[in-house]
Amino acid sequence: MKSKRGFTLIELLVVISIIALLIALLLPALARAKEEGLSTVCLSNLRELGQGYMEYSDANRGQVFPYAWDYPFYGTTGASAWQYNEGWTRLISPYLTSEHIPYLPGTTELSEPAAIKAIMTCPVTNNSGNIPGSWGPGSAAYAWRQWNADGNDPQGGWISSYGMNGWVYNPAHGQGLYGYILQNLPSYQSGQGVLSYFWPKADVNGAVPLFGDSTWVDGFPLWNDAVPGSLSGQDMSNEPPSFQAGSGSGMMQQFCINRHQMAVNWAFCDGHAEHIQLGNLWQLRWTPNWQAKKVVITASN
What are phi and psi for residue 273, nearest 5 degrees? Predict the structure, then answer.
């Protein structure tokens, strides 16, 4: 009886080489599919934020969000209520979940529930333990951490990967907004009245970007902002002084980050969300007086 013939060494090596080649061909496709899946989750988060904004506006007689501080929120009283419990992340939260939003023990500081954090963070970003100290900006790869009232929050403040188009805020007098951005605006673009940059609530529509991938809680882009020298989101030259670096690119750098393969995701004021290539950010209507321009951005920027 003849014995069964096995694989020769050469045949075995050929099979192994074919398998290795197939794996090498499939891995990039699998990686792209994973990236596209994560981007889809991000778009879903932003649609929820857009819908939450519309519900907030409906419940508040068509009002848009006020600026971050000097605004009481969620039934709080006392000095702390007028300082920290009010940024758009807190204002929108009751419209995103039926889960109770608790206070930290012994404080008037709201604690971020897990359900809210899941919506507020892009799945491609690291959203825990990434920012030193109690608050600070993020990057393309990291979420940012918002300030808290008294340092008692073990997270060091709420965490998110998304920012708001600051020109949609209600620019009411007396808000910290005036000291933070408006007093410096004439030096950016002369000849434009300050309030002409803000969207009147009646004009906010589906062409206006509202929430999207960002390195900070909000930003005030201008049409002459330069393409940032790095797309990592780590150059925060226009943030508060403790975060400044020396680029001077303008606040578009907070949104022009390489988070989704040279693109970012944004929700608009009618609740829909879009995947936007970085160069097309300068085509969006950030302000009523926006002057769109064509910008070409490559991975080498």
Answer: -130, 150
The answer to whether residue 212 is domain-embedded is yes
Residue 291 lies in a domain: no
Residue 148 has pLDDT above 70, yes or no: no
Residue 290 lies in a domain: no
Q: CA–CA distance from 73 to each of 50, 55, 68, 82, 246 (Å)?
A: 20, 16, 11, 8, 36
User: What average pLDDT does range 101-122 have in this prediction?
Assistant: 80
Residue 60 is part of which domain span?
11-67+121-283
Q: What are the φ and ψ backbone dihedral angles of 30, each rounded to 5 degrees? A: -65, -40
What is the token pair recorded at 35? 């990236």
Q: Is the dihedral of CA 198, 278, 124, 128 positive or negative?
A: negative
Residue 292 lies in a domain: no
22: number of Cβ within 10 Å: 10
Rounded CA-CA distance 195/274 in Å is: 27
Which contacts qualify for 190-196: CB closer than 8 Å, 24 or more apart? 192/289, 195/171, 196/287, 196/288, 196/289
**Taking every pair of C-alpha atoms in the chain, what is the biggest distance, in angstroms?**
99
Give the tens place of pLDDT for each residue, 179-231.
556 555 554 454 556 678 888 887 888 899 999 999 988 888 888 888 888 89
CA distance 234 to 215: 8
- Domain count within the chain: 1
- pTM, two decimals, is 0.79
For residues 279 and 175, what is the distance between their CA atoms, to the nearest angstrom?
33
User: Within 13 Å of residue 202, how many CA atoms lie on the same side as its CB?
Assistant: 0
